[in-house]
Amino acid sequence: MQRIAADGFEFFYPKEEYCNAQSYRQLDKLQEKRLRLIEEYYNNTKLLLLKNKELLDRLASELYEKEVLLYDEIMAIAGEYLH
C-alpha cells in the first residue's frame, strides 16, 4: 500500500496501482470514482432500509420480546409486509 497526501487528506492506494499510475491526477480520479460508488451504495442501502422500516421495526420488536426467532416466525412476519 502506498500512502499519498493531497489537499490535506491522506489516501491509501495499492502499490501496483500507484506504480502504474500516470500521475497523481489519475489516482485522484480513481479515488473520486471509489467515493462516488461508496456514496451510491450508501444511498441505495439507506433507501432500502427506509422502505422496509416497518418490517425492520416489527422484527426488532419480536426479537426483543423473544430473543430468538425461528425461520418460520421470520417468514410469517415478513409475509405480512412483503407483497
Structure, explained:
The protein is α+β, with helices and mostly antiparallel strands and 83 residues long. It folds into two domains: 1-51, no CATH class; 52-83, no CATH class. It contains four helices and two strands. Helix 3 packs antiparallel against helix 4 (71-81). The termini are far apart. The model has no long low-confidence stretch (mean pLDDT 81).
The unreliable regions are none
Separation of the first and last Cα atoms: 47 Å
What is the number of strand segments? 2
Principal-axes shape call: elongated
Number of domains: 2
Strand content: 5-15%
Largest sheet: 2 strands, antiparallel
Helix content, binned percent: over 70%
Mean pLDDT comes to 81
Largest sheet strand order: 1-2
Helix tally equals 4
The topology string of helices and strands comes to EEHHHH
The assigned structural class equals alpha+beta
Over all CA atoms, what is the radius of gyration? 22 Å
